Structures are given as structure tokens and as C-alpha cells.
């Protein structure tokens, strides 16, 4: 029998709508009406709430449908922050959650949906352990079966990382300095709103760093053990669009059209993320796994993990992914360079940190990082197999 050239499965997301290039306040009010929601609970970035008029405009557009606003989510989405947000949402009798802000706010909102469904409000969310996605002995993810949220959310991102196009999220157990992964298809937003004007308030380093996170999602989809033809086509276009859009943004940072194109590029780059699910889809890889440890255990801002780690991971992965890396270099606009060099060149042009030393991580921590990475869900997602801490310790010096 002839062997098939490619096999796999592609999951389609439970997102209903992506509304792009339109003012967030009006879109959210219209979506609340469409969904029949009367108690809208906003989880907001504190900076957006206290230093801009963005959140106030959304509250005013919602009018009587606005139930309450919470702005107490810290970086890296801690359990205690999620617990406080859940208690506030329950007190407000929320029937729709709207997340406005960066990745931490959006991840927290996903977890609020889960915690509300299962009545978890204690400070450390002790019952959360049974919902964690873990690695089985065979290196494959073990996703526990549980009832998903009945409440859903709208996501309004202020950054470019693209995590809103995904039913998974990360939460940090601050007692153990450990990031854990949780997933359910209904934790994915019903609607994603991409408003370029809202991003004018995003700090430059966060904007640029989060753009590399979107590229990370695209690159790890290309290098995945479980790619799909549709995801490959979409993320390659996303990479090319992002490279062009960032050039246009650098020339005119206040340009709403350049910002809107960056947002669309992030959407496309993150397409592999949206196809992850219990029955197949595109797995992310070691940049995610190692980055989770750098953030949760070493305190590195999430948006600096990719510029630091991705060139090293590309160099290490090249023997098993040479053809795909050539596609990547072409999408980045540098077909004559190895992909690792093309990405490093982009990082330098964006003025982002490029080594572990730049973000305060030194070789004395490599053993801990390698060991902890091996419990991460995505450590086995790369086409060049990582079978133990020794391979991670081969990658880390390449980023030193």
C-alpha cells in the first residue's frame, strides 16, 4: 500500500467572530446585545483603566449592561489574582466576561470562566490541580475530562502575542513559582476584537516583544510534530505580514493602519494555536516550554522569552527542519540567510534583548531550567525530539 505523504488532524476553533479595525467600545456593546448579555463583567489592565479612557468608554457603551470591572491581575497570571477576579465576577452575577488588556488579563479571564463553573474561589485555588494538562509517560499531553465553562468571554487584546486565539492558558502558582497549563475548547473567546486605536497605549517594548510572541506561535507551528497544511499556509502568510507590518510601524508608530496590519498578522501567526485540541491539532514546542520556565521560575517577562530563545532553538532544530526553516527565512524577507540568523537580525532591529544574560539568567540556572522544562506540555512538540534535560542543556548555551 502506498504510504500517505502526510497525516494528521486539524481542529477548528470555537471562536465565532473576529472583528478587526473597529472601535472596541461599540463592538463590545453590539456583541453584548447580540449575545443577550445583561451582566457584563470586565477584566481590565490596570494601566488601561487608571491611565486612559479606554475602559470607561467600554463601560459607558455598555450602559446598564455593565455589571462591574476588575483590574487586579498581576503579570504571569497568578492563582491568587484569578481567585480574586472569580469572586468579583460571582458577586457581580456576570453572564459575560470581557477581557481588555495583555496576555495575563486574557489568560486570567479564561480561568475565571473555569473557576466560576466549578466554584473555586479560595486564595490558592487548591482544587485546580485536577484540571491541569500534564505529560503522560509517553510524552503526550494528558488532558483531564471535565465540564467546561457555561459562561463565555470576549477578548480585546492590547498586545500582539495572539494567545486569545486559543482555548488554553497559563496560570502561575506563586508558592511554587510554577506555571501550569489548562485547556478547554470553551475557554476560547466567542469573539475577539482587534482595535488598533486601543494599542496606542501599549508600551513600545511590550508591543515589539509581543510581536515576537506571535511569531513564536507561527514558527513553532511550522516546526511542530503535528503540522497541518492549513496552519502552515496561514502562519507563513502571518510571518511575512508581520515582518512587513513591523517595518511600517517603525517608520510611523502612531499609524493606525500599521497597527491594524500588525494585529491581523498576529491573528494569522496564531492560527496553529487555535487548532490545538483534545483530538488533534498543532502542538507548540520548546520555545513555549522553556519560556514558561523562564517566566514562572526566573521572572523573565513573557514577551522577552522569544527574542532570547528562538534563534537558539532554530539553530538546534535545523537538522530536522531544514526545509521548513528555508520557508521561514523567506517569509521573514531574508531568503539568503539561515532562519536563526534572519530571526536574530529582526530581534536586533527591534532593539529587544537577545541573550539569556540580557534578561538576568546565567548558566548556574541552566540545570534547573532544563529539569523543569521537561514537565512542560510542549517540550516534546518539536520535530527534532527532546528526550531529556540533556537536550535542553544543549539549547540553553546557544542563547547565553
UniProtKB/TrEMBL annotation:
Transmembrane regions: none
Q: Which InterPro entries match?
A: ADH_Fe/GldA (IPR001670), ADH_Fe_C (IPR056798), Alcohol_dehydrogenase_Fe (IPR039697)
Keyword Metal-binding included in the entry's annotation: no
Q: What keywords are assigned to this protein?
A: Oxidoreductase
Could you tell me which Gene3D superfamilies the record lists for this protein? 3.40.50.1970, Dehydroquinate synthase-like - alpha domain
Q: Does the keyword Oxidoreductase apply?
A: yes
Domain (Alcohol dehydrogenase iron-type/glycerol dehydrogenase GldA) spans 17-196
Q: What domain of life does the UniProt record list for this protein's source?
A: Bacteria
* Residue ranges of every copy of the Fe-containing alcohol dehydrogenase-like C-terminal domain listed in the record: 214-395
Spell out the family assignment given in the record's similarity comment: Belongs to the iron-containing alcohol dehydrogenase family.
Q: From the Swiss-Prot or TrEMBL record, give the protein name.
A: Alcohol dehydrogenase class IV
Q: List the source organism.
A: Variovorax soli
